[in-house]
Fold:
Amino acid sequence: MRKRDLKTGMLICLLLQIHCLSGSAIERISAIGARESAMALAVVALPGHFSIFQNQAFLAEEKFSSLNLSFRQPWLIKGYHESALSLVCPIPSAVLALGVAQSAVATYKETSVSIAMAKKLTRKLSGGTCINYFFMNLPETGRSTGSFQVDCGIGYQHSRRLSLGIHLRNCAQTAAETFQYQLVFPLVIRCGASCRLSEQLLLTGETAFEKDGGVAFRFGTEYKLIENFLLRGGLLTNPFQHSFGFGYRWRSFQLDFSLVHHEILGYSPLFSINFNFSR
Structure:
């Protein structure tokens, strides 16, 4: 058996063991969007094309309809991938978004289908909510199980340079039953800020608390090296990871790439493409 196949097999066993022993599902999708991933996911207070998966309140900042695709191969393991698609559509009184995300390793898959709405509540304050249906296929039974989840977020644009955000994932703390055990989807609370120190430099930071999972701190930065080309980096605790990447904008297109390093498992590359329809 090749080393890559052995690594994949061990990973599947580990994931299933985590389900059985702790009763908690793998985090819905660990990283979506190369910009977000390069900044260590410290984006709870940052508008972006993938805000439907991060903080729906900042969808209210989107002015154009867009189609966004993301693909990640964690730790370069063959047969293991995480992919996502989002469609953002501003309407006169709000912004609507549809998202689909999937994490798959061999015959095991987790999929999330999300519908979100965001709205400006005042000139500086915005709110957003999202309904997700999360389901997974169970290789041991050949069946699927899942549960609805509700996310909500608040965004506050204090000034042109400073934004604050707070987000609650799975407010109702739902669970899904399988043949052998109960899968609990934990409450995750994130709060943070983004600060634009200059036209070239952006700093972000946030704290994430997961019930029964502890606290994580995330820090990210983005620097515009030249027109339309940006460099990014980030640090994440629990577990410790560092990341970096770049982005390039050309007319209606944006291409982003990131590389995230896990202290034990190694590197994970991520690509994302964004297309704005109205530019």
